[in-house]
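Researcher: I'm preparing a figure for a lab meeting and need a structural model of a single chain. I don't have an experimental structure, so a prediction will have to do for now. The sequence is pasted below. Please return the structure as tokens so I can convert it later.
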Amino acid sequence: MAQHLLLCHHTFDIKLSLPDDALVALKRTPSEMAEEIRLAAAMKLYDLGRLSSGTAAALAGVPRVVFLAKLPDYGIATFRMSAEELSEDLAPRRYQNRQAAQVGHWPSPLKTSSRHQSKA
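Model: Understood. Here is the structure written out token by token.
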């Protein structure tokens, strides 16, 4: 019999005490400050590699696309792969694309169609 993992989504409240002068200095209301702290914590945990972008976005309370768009605001690179990692990741796709082009699934980007060739 297969066991199924049931993921339950619970939320937890965390109380954080802030001095009034911090809110005044940052010109934020308590609710704005709570949102900012959630986003900053999510950004840092993502930057440390402790959360995926999707989980960090959920922690921040924003859609993943918004979270990713805000990464540069926090000095975090949006694209985290090294050139070597990217090359390794793309290698199987390049092979699949070549195979598909050879069997005629789509025109090869390396071949020039006859209508684009100059007439001599």
